[in-house]
Structure formats: structure tokens, C-alpha cells
Amino acid sequence: MENYQIKDYTVNKNTKGITYEKVVEILKNYNRVKDRVLLLEYEINNYTPIVSGDDVIYQMTFNGLSNQDNLHYDTEQIAMSYEKKADRINIRHKQELEDEVCLLKAGNERLNYYIGFLTERQAKIIRLIYFEGKTITEVSLSMSLSETTVKTTRRSGINRLLEMYSIISC
Asked: Can you tell me the mean pLDDT for 8-27?
């Protein structure tokens, strides 16, 4: 098993489930996460309740066949109780969306922060390949590097990211 020395920390390559493959997955999902955040933010800003109080009351009046003024008091109280429950469900649902946005944003911000600690070449290659979708060949041509150098630099950058994720996961 391979170990890395970073400052005063010794980091095992497979610490706490963080693997090289997991870091690559995080990089590959970066743009998908950004897109999901945008979609969720739209849903939050244009939130439509999943259950309305009127729907609940309508159901309590036996599918709208009886007149609301003639509802039995107990039935009306039950309907109002369900209306409050519907409000709580909607609030919880919206909060879950907001929580997911926060987690997704934090993950991408963390990745960007860690990339800031890579060498300039490593960071550029990782951004071009994973964030902009460039191929190894395209990156090697645009940076005037051999494909082998691009692959080696990418691998060393991912290993450095792995070290950073592993330190925090300890």
C-alpha cells in the first residue's frame, strides 16, 4: 500500500474510502453537479407546493360533492389539521432541496479550493480535461506538451487531490 508524506501527516492512499477512482469520479461529476445546483435553485426560487391545503380540504369534503358550509365540525377540524400537515410537508420538501444545494455547492467549492493547491500545470490540465471536457490530445496540442506528459501531470495532480481529500477524511 502506498503512503504519502504531507507536512506532518502520513496519508494512506485508501484512507476512509477515498480512492484515486473516487477523486476521478468527483472530477468527472463536477459539471453535472453544477447543472444540478442550477436546476435545484430554479425549483427552489419557483417552488410549487407538492401538496396544497385546498387539495386536502377538497378531499375531506368527499371529493367536493358536499358544500363546505355543511361540513361537520369534526371533519372541518380534521381537514384543517391535514392542511397544516400539508404545509409542514411542503416546508420540509423545500428545505431538503435547499440542503441538497448547499451540500453540492460545498463539494464543488472544496474541489476548486483543493485544485488551487496544485501546481499551475496540474490545475490547468485537470480543469481542461474534467471541467472543459478536452481530450488528452487536445490538451497536449494546446499546451505544447507530449500526451505522456499530460497523462503523467494529470495523474500526479489527481494523486495530490487524493492526498488532500485523505487528510480531511482521517
From this structure: 69
Q: Per-residue pLDDT tens for 68-87?
A: 555 566 666 776 777 788 88
Residue 81 · residue 89 · CB < 8 Å: no
3-state helix, strand, coil in the chain (%, to 5): 75, 5, 20
Cell numbers found for residue 133: 471536457
Q: Which residues contact 16 (CB under 8 A, 6 or more apart)?
A: 166, 169, 170
Question: Which amino acid is located at 90 in the chain?
Answer: N
Confidence at residue 169, expressed as pLDDT on a 0 to 100 scale: 62
Amino acid at 102: C
24: nearest Cα among 136, 169, 103, 129 = 129
What global pTM score does this model have? 0.71
Residue bearing the bigger pLDDT, 120 or 49: 120
Where do the domains of the chain lie, and which CATH numbers do they carry? Answer: 3-49+94-169 (1.10.10.10)
- Report d(CA 49, CA 90) in Å as an integer: 6
d(CA 76, CA 144): 75
Q: Of 124, 126, 119, 113, whose CA–CA distance to 158 is shortest?
A: 126
Q: For the chain, what is the radius of gyration of the CA atoms? A: 26
Per-residue cell: 119: 501546481
